[in-house]
């Protein structure tokens, strides 16, 4: 009898879910969009998985193919949830900028938990607006300018490593060195600790950070996460499981404990004129200032958002530097132009306390923009949830609809860029020549990357110093095309094997 009741209940649940899916899968027709035919339970995730295997697991390439087949704006279903994906620049600008009031939130990801879920990245609009207003002063040009000394100290360590490789003439993976550098930088400016990841591959901070990133729960790794994505109706039943059994929880706990200890110590001796100057000090300064509603930034909120800085400042910046290094090694003529520019401006490179002058070097700026166009580190995190009904560019959105930008499609659209497959920094010398939405490695609109200017400063400062001292070139073990891995949100090279020689 019990078995019959259980089976009957399961059958009823499946039937109810099926009816709900049928209703959900009519939303695309209501919007007048095309797209691949959905499966009743999987939506289009089955087709997406098959296509990703054919395309080297690059989700963005699948979306580009579907855009060619179904139009520049199309819809696909993740289980019951419709995603509107577009490369139409006016529609993108409408969603991200002009009608931001209707698209204030990012999509809720059921497998994101812990510190990140309560950080600026994922909190909903009312809390996001408060956090952003408190955190934004940390990343003003003047505040970033004062952090250049810390960045330069870490870059000097990389220079010593590159000098060693120039003497031996051996090939090596420069991506690993960049990871160590960016992590040392973010450990100092966000966590307030001195790590030695550049020179010590067994550094505890490095190992725990790597594990934290490598073991993030995803549908590909965790069956409960897959169930939560496919069946959000019952997803909350599994939330406890993926939050507390994921391996990354161990590393998050270690990192969080270290961070809270530093915050506690610094708070007890806090002085706005103290010797420290990093984002942690700036956030502690901000925690003493109330917003218009009398709220103060708590120590827990500071810790949660330091995890955002870890996420934004570690993998994305090192990835951008690695991709750029490979492009310059392949395009020696572009590398020579960049080297000539930085050598003509040695004081701008060496005066660390005025490091923001490096930001004004025109060809360096063009290389930064073009390299992140060709290889944007983030390929599908520019997504928004509709929070109130609206019409944009003739398309009617209802509350709960999801919108995403296929950044690679935008960056490689010949309508936006002539010869998009080529690395041509010169195209960015005149910034008025392109649509504002045609370049978005950091997103766009009010909810873009808060640390964009800091990442740009670190990138330019490092690359300028390396180009002043070294020539980077391919060796016998270098790879062309470059092997790339993509988890659907981030893309990075598996390795970047190069050789260096002193200039």
UniProtKB/TrEMBL annotation:
Molecular functions (GO terms): heme binding; iron ion binding; monooxygenase activity; oxidoreductase activity, acting on paired donors, with incorporation or reduction of molecular oxygen
- Any Pfam family matching the protein: p450
Q: Where does heme bind?
A: 449
Key words, A-Z: Heme, Iron, Metal-binding, Monooxygenase, Oxidoreductase
Cofactor(s) recorded in Swiss-Prot or TrEMBL: heme
Q: Does the keyword Oxidoreductase feature in the UniProt annotation?
A: yes
Where does the signal sequence lie?
Answer: none
Q: Does the keyword Metal-binding apply?
A: yes
What family does the Swiss-Prot or TrEMBL record give for this protein?
Answer: Belongs to the cytochrome P450 family.
**Protein name, UniProt field:** Cytochrome P450
């Amino acid at each position: 009898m019990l078995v019959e009741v259980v089976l009957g209940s399961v059958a009823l649940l499946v039937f109810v879910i099926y009816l709900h899916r049928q209703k959900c899968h009519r939303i695309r027709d209501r919007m007048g969009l095309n797209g691949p035919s959905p499966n009743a339970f999987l939506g289009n995730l089955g087709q997406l998985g098959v296509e990703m295997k054919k395309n080297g697991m690059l989700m963005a390439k699948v979306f580009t193919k579907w855009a060619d087949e179904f139009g520049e704006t199309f819809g696909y279903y993740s289980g019951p949830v419709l995603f509107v994906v577009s490369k139409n620049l006016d529609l993108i600008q409408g969603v991200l900028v002009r009608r931001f009031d209707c698209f204030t939130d990012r999509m809720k990801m059921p497998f994101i938990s812990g510190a990140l879920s309560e950080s600026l990245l994922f909190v909903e609009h009312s809390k996001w607006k408060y956090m952003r207003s408190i955190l934004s002063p940390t990343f003003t040009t003047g505040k970033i300018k004062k952090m250049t000394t810390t960045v330069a100290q870490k870059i000097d360590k990389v220079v010593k490593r590159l000098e060693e490789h120039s003497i031996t003439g051996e090939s090596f993976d420069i991506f690993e060195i960049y990871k160590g550098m960016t992590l040392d930088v973010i450990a100092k400016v966000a966590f307030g600790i001195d790590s030695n990841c550049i020179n010590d591959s067994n550094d505890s901070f490095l190992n725990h950070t790597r594990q934290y990133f490598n073991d993030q729960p995803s549908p590909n790794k965790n069956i409960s996460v897959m169930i939560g994505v496919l069946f959000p109706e019952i997803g909350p039943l599994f939330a406890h499981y993926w939050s507390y059994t994921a391996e990354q929880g161990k590393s998050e706990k270690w990192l969080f404990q270290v961070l809270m200890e530093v915050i506690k110590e610094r708070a007890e001796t806090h002085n706005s004129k103290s010797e420290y100057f990093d984002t942690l000090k700036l956030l502690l300064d901000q925690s003493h200032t109330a917003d218009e509603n009398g709220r103060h930034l708590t120590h827990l909120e500071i810790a949660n958002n330091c995890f955002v800085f870890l996420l934004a400042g570690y993998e994305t910046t090192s990835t951008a530097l690695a991709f750029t290094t490979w492009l310059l090694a392949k395009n020696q003529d572009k590398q020579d132009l960049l080297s000539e520019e930085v050598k003509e401006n040695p004081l701008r490179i060496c005066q660390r306390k005025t490091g923001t002058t490096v930001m004004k070097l025109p060809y360096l700026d063009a290389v930064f923009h073009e390299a992140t166009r060709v290889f944007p580190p983030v390929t599908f995190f520019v997504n928004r949830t509709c929070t109130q009904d609206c019409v944009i560019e003739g398309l009617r959105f209802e509350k709960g609809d999801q919108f995403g930008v296929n950044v690679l499609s935008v960056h490689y659209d010949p309508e936006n860029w002539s010869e998009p497959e080529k690395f041509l920094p010169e195209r960015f010398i005149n910034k008025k020549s392109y649509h504002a939405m045609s370049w978005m490695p950091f997103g766009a609109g009010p909810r873009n990357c808060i640390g964009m200017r800091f990442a740009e400063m670190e990138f330019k400062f490092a690359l300028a110093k390396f180009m002043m001292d070294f020539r980077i070139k391919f060796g016998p073990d270098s790879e062309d095309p470059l092997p790339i891995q993509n988890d659907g949100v981030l893309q990075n090279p598996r390795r970047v094997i190069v050789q260096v020689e002193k200039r």
